Amino acid sequence: MTFEYERSVIVKKKSSDRIEVEVAKPAHQRIIILLVCLTLAACSQTPGTAENANGNRGSAASAPTTSASAIPTPSPTPEVEQLKIPERVASGAVTESRGVWDKAVQSINYVSTADNTRQPMMFYKPQVDAPRPLLVALHSWSNNYRQKESVIYAEWCIANDWIFIHPNFRGPNNRPEAMGSDLVIGDVLSAIDYAKANGRVDESRIYAVGWSGGGFLGLLLAGRAPEIWAGISAWVPISDLNAWYEESRRLGTKYVREIAAACGGRPVGEGAAADECRKRSPLTYLERARGIPIDINHGIRDGRNAADPVPVSQSLIAFNLLAAPPDRFTEEDIAYFTREAQVPSALRSETTDPSYGGLRILFRRQSGNARITIFDGAHDKNTEAAFRWLNRQRKGR
Q1: Are 2 and 23 in contact (CB under 8 A)?
Q2: What's the pLDDT band for 397 if we cut at 50, 70, 90?
Q3: What is the pTM of this model?
Q4: Which of 185, 299, 337, 383 satisfies CB 3.0 to 4.6 Å to 378 for a cystine?
Q5: Domains (ranges, CATH) in the chain?
């Protein structure tokens, strides 16, 4: 190391006929002397003790330490970026329910480490030489990686230079290999590895978004692999498969057959099928996800017919597993929300959020990293609201 400095000359007038000239020490020498003094002062203190924030003294060996691996890597984009609205979304060519995949989004195959098989997914990476967020978009219950309702996710990624994956994870949830199985989890994690290997992923900004069955898997992934996520946006999700089986039976929907097919029988009582459904349910793992920002959204009129098959109670129960005890809903509150399709009078408040567009917010609550929004609607989603919330999240912050 080379030090560059100038010597300063100090003139001291001693008398009328004699002047002394003193050359000052270089700056780096003064710094070294200062550091030596500080070191000697520190060494003179009594060893083996440390003082905590409360003024209590204890053994230095018992003080907590932080390993380098535990410190999150700072995001290359720490500030919230201004999101662009996709042109095809603004024009109405792509909506929440329809759209044609952009040619820039490729259909590719990757190897899943779950069983060493090749699995399909949609994949997009922007042509930019900088780390970018990764969106893991999750198809709904009865669909697959080509689902038209997911085109809008890709449009928002293209417009904002986000990396995008839309894996198949064994297709519709009507067989044992699908519906939250270990194969499904392995497929999604391997898809993320593919994106990292083939694009410049900002690992402090890996997000998941899903609607209905995709929201179900988003919550399941939050609990099964919490170390990955910077944020998860779940819309009208299922959190308890056993309860949803009974709710679907009352509505007479196809999901009764599909749950039984995936879990190996009717999941009632304490049988093997019931155990299998619990194993695949997000509620079994959600308490592990309290360190992750999770945004749960549900229409208050959902769960009342075959077209709107997931009751709002599924989201309220999921939030309770993530929230601090004072912020949890009572059983009476959950029953009222679900039965009356209204917010209990004691919980009513005014909340506005322009990003939700035509979905009027009826209720919102935040507890720690978890947020729940109940809106005036049924089995709906709003991709702009999801993106604007995800865009503010960073891992470890």
Answers
A1: no
A2: confident
A3: 0.81
A4: 299
A5: 90-240+281-390 (3.40.50.1820)
